[in-house]
Amino acid sequence: MNPDDPLLRILACPLDKGPLHLLPPAPGADREEGTGGRAAREESLYNPRLRRRYPIVDGIPQLLPSSGEQVPDEEHEELLTRMSPAHHPDTPGTAS
């Protein structure tokens, strides 16, 4: 999936129905191991309002509520920096 994909404009979080943001794989994530390693290696969709990440498996977004994972505070801050500036809305509860 690419950041300009029109599908991104219509995809919504299954919990709050708000927009999701495409997260590319983390730089150097192919070497990560342990908790969160797999999620960091793959593209995912992120809801910064609820701090939930939804995986994209074989190009298909997994948008069932049970497919999402809660992201800890430290990782949330890192994910905000990975979000494209063009797609980075004002997120309640985050520093400006």
Lay out the secondary structure.
Elements: H1 7-10, E1 21-23, H2 37-41, E2 44-47, E3 52-57, E4 60-61, E5 69-70, H3 73-82
Antiparallel strand pairs: 1-2, 2-3, 3-4, 3-5
How does this structure look, described?
This protein is of the alpha+beta class and 96 residues long. The chain is 20% helix and 18% strand. The chain has helices spanning 7-10, 37-41, 73-82; strands spanning 21-23, 44-47, 52-57, 60-61, 69-70. Strands 1, 2, 3, 4 and 5 form a five-stranded antiparallel β-sheet that branches. Strand 3 (52-57) and strand 4 form a beta hairpin. The longest helix has 10 residues, at 73-82.
| Percent helix range | 10-25%
**What is the count of DSSP helices, taking H or I runs of 4+ residues?**
3
Stretches with pLDDT under 50, minimum 5 residues = 31-35, 90-96
Count of individual beta strands: 5
Helix- and strand-based class? alpha+beta
Largest sheet: 5 strands, antiparallel
Overall body shape: globular
Query: What is the typical, i.e. mean, pLDDT?
Result: 81
Using the CA coordinates, give the radius of gyration: 13 Å
Strand content: 15-25%
N→C terminal distance: 28 Å
